[in-house]
User: Fold this.
Amino acid sequence: MLLMDNSSFEKSAAIIFYPDKIIIETRNKKDNYTWYSSGKLTIFPINASAGMLGEGIINHLNQSEIKGIEMKEMKELRNLFRKKGKFKSEKSTMEDAKYVSIYSDKNMIRFEPKKNKTSQQLFYNMPESISEFAVKNLDSIKIGKYARDSAAKCVFI
Assistant:
């Protein structure tokens, strides 16, 4: 089993599959244990190719930064995600959402599918479903495929 510790990773993004669209967002690192939405996102059609999704993931990982931030600013950026994604509420951002966190460094990329508990507005880790791959063996098509495969492991509770 892989460790859940993401503190060593330098970059993060998330891909969220909805019934009518796919959103990839850049996530920034506040400290060793806190990642947050940067407000930067790209919306793809649900039938986007693996190559398109992989390129989007690479683009958003490249935009990820280590940046100190206050809680108020984190909430404002989350609201920006909701606005750009055309969601009515925070709860609606979670409805039917298959959420996959993606972490990377120079050598490795990790996909972490989540359990979605919309009623509590929480995503839970699924350590048994984490996948890691060496970056040197990947292209955008493989990255997009691994993201879709990871989303297929997401569950609703």
In short: The chain is about 30% helix and 35% strand. The CA atoms of residues 13 and 61 lie 6 Å apart. The longest helix spans residues 50-63.
